[in-house]
TrEMBL record:
Chain ranges of the Uracil-DNA glycosylase-like domain: 19-180
PANTHER family: G/T AND G/U MISMATCH-SPECIFIC DNA GLYCOSYLASE, G_T MISMATCH-SPECIFIC THYMINE DNA GLYCOSYLASE
Keywords, in A-Z order: DNA damage, DNA repair, Glycosidase, Hydrolase
InterPro entries attached to this UniProt entry: MUG/TDG, Uracil-DNA_glycosylase-like, Uracil-DNA_glycosylase-like_sf
Protein name: G/U mismatch-specific DNA glycosylase
Gene3D superfamilies for this protein: Uracil-DNA glycosylase-like domain (3.40.470.10)
Organism listed in the record: Amycolatopsis nalaikhensis
UniProt keyword annotation of Acetylation present: no
The gene coding this protein: mug
């Protein structure tokens, strides 16, 4: 497949899933809301041009250079992984129901208990609030833990989230990076 999906490929990607990038005992497991059609068509997380996840990951100090979505498996060597609250692809996150998000929160908690990352970083405050039932949660570290895993909520890196500039996103990712380093030895 070319690096840019066609209209037909995007249409065919609706309700697909993308494999997690995951391994036991990661430093940080990043968790998106759900994959978009562009990501579904390519089979890569945060693949849509304009999504600021990869630049924020680099700006926050998690990667030594700006990675491309096609290099997502290389994150495992850095102690990082990617999953989603809801696995199915949609054109927009607002196509998800609250019930889907809550069910996704349960699946995510089970995954965290199985893989034991040191930190779970949910990228999307609204999805986190709904999935875990914390309607007043704010961006940053949470009191809520899953087993021994600490939870951090990051802003949604979608280009549609204009409230957060690329610089501000990088700064939020850097705060998590600093916390993940200080707590490396559980």
């Amino acid at each position: 497949m070319s690096t840019r999906p066609t209209k037909d490929q995007l249409a065919a990607a609706h309700n697909k899933t993308i494999e997690d990038v995951i391994a036991p005992d990661l430093d940080v497991l990043f968790c998106g809301i759900n994959p978009g059609l562009y990501s579904g068509a390519l089979g890569q997380h945060f693949a849509r041009p304009g999504n600021r996840f990869w630049p924020a990951l680099h700006a926050g100090g998690f990667t030594p250079r700006l990675y491309k979505p096609s290099e997502q498996e290389d994150l495992l060597k850095l102690g990082l992984g990617i999953t989603n609250v809801v696995p199915r692809t949609t054109a927009r996150a607002d196509e998800l129901t609250d019930d889907e998000l809550r069910e996704g929160g349960k699946r995510l908690a089970a995954k965290v208990l199985e893989y034991h990352p040191r930190w779970l970083a949910v990228v999307g405050i609204t999805a986190y609030r709904t999935a875990f039932g914390f309607p007043k949660a704010q961006v940053g570290p949470q009191e809520h833990k899953i087993g021994e895993t600490r939870v951090w909520v990051l802003p949604n890196p979608s280009g549609l989230n204009a409230h957060w500039t690329p610089t501000a996103l990088g700064q939020e990712f850097a705060k998590l990076r600093a916390a993940s380093r200080s707590r490396r030895n559980r």
